[in-house]
Every structure is written in structure tokens, then in C-alpha cells.
Design a protein that fits this description.
The protein is of the alpha/beta class. 16% of the residues lie in helices and 28% in strands. The protein has three helices and ten strands; from the N terminus they run αβαβββββαββββ.
Length: 160
């Protein structure tokens, strides 16, 4: 049996364990690839993939606008690749209500501004007009002006 002093003299052994993250994966030019090619490449390299979409009048529909990694970056297995794909030109659709328009604009990051005016023919809260007609192409970074009715104007009598 060892004494306390003998136990203190026992040498400490340091063990180092290295765990591999797997092979390094070099990001290709994703902007030059189709969605199918990107999907196949991601599966082959055991990565995760998320596609987002965005309207862009300068990039054709289904072409890659951007990705969260650039060509030449090195990632490891399990990394999530986020690719934003063009929906093509933004064309003004028809809306049945102001709320429907706002939901669409927020979903697709379309800038808009609201103006209000009195209108005898349009109920309060309903759209009088948009600055774009249905079918018009909206350029990148343009803002849609929505004119919303305050309802009928009221005349306040002068009590002087």
C-alpha cells in the first residue's frame, strides 16, 4: 500500500485526442450553378441547404443571386449553405385588400410608402390607387406608393 507522499509522486500522463471534422469542402462558384446542380453538390458533400427567393430585375428567374459563402471558402460536413435565387422581374399583381398588399410586400421585401387622402367614393382603410398598374414591372429598389382612403371628408362649421 502506498502512502500519501508516494501517491503525490506518481507522474501525470497527458492524453490528447483529436477528432476529425471530416474532409475540408471548398465552395464552388454557386452563382454559376443551377438549383439542381447545387442540390446534388450539397448532398454529395453532406451539407445542409436552404433556398430563399427574391425578385431581381437584373438577374433572370431561377439564377443564383447570392449565397452565404463565396467561391473558395472552406467548410466542413454539416454546414448550412443558404442560396438566394431570383424570382425574376417583379410584376405588380392585383390585390383584393391593403392587408393582402402589405403581406406580399413584407414577404418579398418590396419597399412601399403609404399616403392618405379623403375620398368620397372609397371607404376608409381601402386602397384608392397604387403608383404601379397591375402587370407593370417594378425595378429593384423602387418604392410603391399606396394611396389609402381616409373616407369622406367632413366640413367643420365656422362658429365665429
Amino acid at each position: 500500500m502506498r502512502s500519501f507522499e508516494q501517491e503525490q509522486q506518481v507522474k501525470m500522463i497527458k492524453i490528447v485526442i483529436s477528432i476529425s471534422k471530416g474532409p475540408e469542402i471548398k465552395i464552388p462558384n454557386l452563382k454559376g450553378m443551377s438549383m439542381t446542380d447545387i442540390t446534388e453538390w450539397v448532398i454529395k458533400n453532406k451539407l445542409k441547404l436552404e433556398f430563399k427567393d427574391k425578385y431581381d430585375d437584373s438577374i433572370e428567374e431561377n439564377a443564383v443571386i447570392s449565397a452565404n459563402y463565396k467561391e473558395g471558402d472552406v467548410v466542413s460536413e454539416g454546414t448550412e449553405i443558404v442560396v438566394t435565387v431570383s424570382r425574376g422581374k417583379l410584376v405588380m399583381p392585383k390585390f383584393s385588400s391593403y392587408n393582402e398588399f402589405k403581406e406580399w410586400a413584407e414577404k418579398y421585401e418590396v419597399r412601399y410608402e403609404e399616403q392618405r387622402e379623403f375620398n368620397s367614393d372609397v371607404k376608409a382603410g381601402e386602397v384608392i390607387k397604387y403608383s404601379y398598374n397591375v402587370g407593370d414591372t417594378i425595378k429593384n429598389n423602387d418604392s410603391i406608393v399606396v394611396t389609402v382612403s381616409n373616407g369622406k371628408s367632413a366640413t367643420v362649421p365656422n362658429r365665429s
